[in-house]
Amino acid sequence: MQSLSSFMNTIRFNFLYIDKYSFGRTWTYPESAIPYNMLRYIIDGSAEFVVDGETVIVRKGQVSYIPEGCWLSCKALEDTFAFYSIRFTTSVFYEGANFLREYYNFPLVMDVGEGIEPYFGDIYKWVRTDKKSKSFHVRGALDTLIASLIDILNSDEPDDVKAEINGLEYNLEQIRKRVKKSTVQTDPRIQTVIDYIMLNPTEEYTSDKLSGMAEVAETTFRRLFKEATGKTATEFIRQVRLTTAARLLLVSNDPVNCIAHDVGFEDANHFTRVFRQAFGMTPGRYRKMSQE
């Protein structure tokens, strides 16, 4: 059985976008399907969020966790309502599972206090720099933010280490029931290929090239890769490219067809079709949501 440590080591949070918003009392957000995860830190004011039919009131100093795939509507309740909003996806290895809620019991609203605001501010600052190290700072800051929220949620965790481990194992079994994944640790040869694809999603890949990178026969590579990711290499590469495209749609004004080409799709119409299948909406609608 896959160990807890190896399970945790395969988790990836893919940053998409962050912005700071300020609205008046008349602000509303019509009910829409959300194709990514969101963490919203409330800077000032209060609002009503309705997530999959559940109504919650969010206030200054709170964080709202809005999971991928839910239906969301919002309306401001005060003259000023301001918040940070971070958008991200969970690694492709856990498609179909609400990881943060299933594993760490993330609620829709967390009372975190103003001490958590600097974490959002750091990410907001780094995405606006031109430093070569930007992507590493943003990635690290997002991981640190999520880790800090986990610490806050588990501040009253039991002192008994065995009880804590048993609780983690129980939660891990819950995740296993929801998510298809290998029962063995990822082969380091396959992990090398996975990491390379994540860093170079727009390269052209063939079965021969991928198996050569792993230094195994093509049939062996296909089997090991499917065991490690639950997907074929083609499916995995396509999803990584779509995640890259989703981020570019949010952080740039490049035309959709240019983004499609940049991430490895020669046919913009084909890109639109597979994007809609993955995110439930067209690239244009996805981009528009970030401006609403």
TrEMBL record:
GO terms for molecular function: DNA-binding transcription factor activity; sequence-specific DNA binding. SMART domains: HTH_ARAC. It comes from [Clostridium] clostridioforme 90A6. InterPro entries: Homeodomain-like_sf (IPR009057), HTH_AraC (IPR018060), HTH_AraC-typ_CS (IPR018062), RmlC-like_jellyroll (IPR014710), RmlC_Cupin_sf (IPR011051), Tscrpt_reg_AraC-type_HTH (IPR020449). It comes from the Bacteria. This is HTH araC/xylS-type domain-containing protein. Keywords: DNA-binding, Transcription, Transcription regulation. PANTHER family: ARAC-FAMILY TRANSCRIPTIONAL REGULATOR (PTHR43280), HTH-TYPE TRANSCRIPTIONAL REGULATOR EXSA (PTHR43280:SF2). Pfam families: HTH_18. Residues 191-289 form the HTH araC/xylS-type domain.
